[in-house]
Amino acid sequence: MDILLELARVRDETIGDVAAFFGLEREQVYDQAATWSQRQRAMLAEGIPGDHYAHWLGDDGRANVCLNTIDQFYRTDVFAVICQLHTAGLVRDVVDFGCGTGVVSYPHLSRCRSAVMVDVPNVAQDFLRWRLERDRLHHVILLHHEAVGPLPAESFDLVCCIDVLEHLPEPTQVFEQFDRWLRPGGFYLHRAPWAESEEDEREVGHLLAAPVDWNRPGGAAEQLARRYERLAPVSFGGLYRKL
């Protein structure tokens, strides 16, 4: 498979779906995406409440879906890893944690035995639900992020967590959930551009507390090094296999 050709095909199909969902022309998807940074800065200027991401509704939610869809296709390395795992038949049961629009996982969901897409209820989840219902992917479950506790242990071949943990104050606790869900030999795909300054926290909501918790003694970084094999790098993260 030519990854770049496949990425272009999936991107064009997905942008068409975003346009159809919102009743936009294709070029308007890009126009909406361009408004997101200003909208996000305005929301973050008011502080970051616990349910911040549930406030991505209405016009703000539409702009976020447009931006998230376009932005995910710049993660060529992440797209390539997910394609390779699925086309090689290495994963059948998957969790996409903090899935947003789910656009990178979506092309492969029809081949999964089970899939759990986890995020905060907002317009991105509405868009994903619309696609799932249209395509009759009834084996895919959408879950609120607070409802994932009952997921069965050692039941998944792949956990994806892309651009999520940098927004959470205690990412080690979340990683330990992932570790419980993964079967031995399962894969963990992780990308987290950690905050490096107060400006990161103000401008994009990346918490300075997140990398401190991740890298503390006994934290997730130490657990990954001890119990996982790093198979491939991706920007700000990597693909790991549970030993």
Tell me about this structure.
The protein is of the alpha/beta class and 243 residues long. The chain has 2 domains: 3-71, no CATH class; 75-242, Rossmann fold (3-Layer(aba) Sandwich), CATH 3.40.50. 45% of the residues lie in helices and 19% in strands. The protein contains 10 helices and 7 strands. Helix 1 packs antiparallel against helix 4 (58-72) and helix 2 crosses helix 4. The longest helix is centred in the first third of the chain and has 20 residues, at 3-22. The two termini are 29 Å apart.
Main traits of this protein?
243 residues; alpha/beta; Rossmann fold; 7-stranded mixed beta sheet; globular
| CATH architecture tag of the largest domain | 3-Layer(aba) Sandwich
Give the termini separation.
29 Å
> How many structural domains in the coordinates?
2
Radius of gyration using CA atoms only? 17 Å
Low-confidence stretches: none
Average the pLDDT over all residues and give the rounded result.
91
Structural class: alpha/beta
CATH class of the largest domain: Alpha Beta
Q: Strand order, biggest sheet?
A: 3-2-1-4-5-7-6
The share of residues in extended strands comes to: 15-25%
Written as H for each helix and E for each strand, in order along the chain, the element string is HHHHHEEHEEHEHHHEE
Q: Could you describe the largest sheet, including whether it forms a barrel?
A: 7 strands, mixed
The CATH homologous superfamily of the largest domain is called Vaccinia Virus protein VP39
Helix tally equals 10
The 3D shape can be described as: globular
Helical percent range?
40-55%
Work out the number of β strands.
7
CATH topology of the largest domain: Rossmann fold
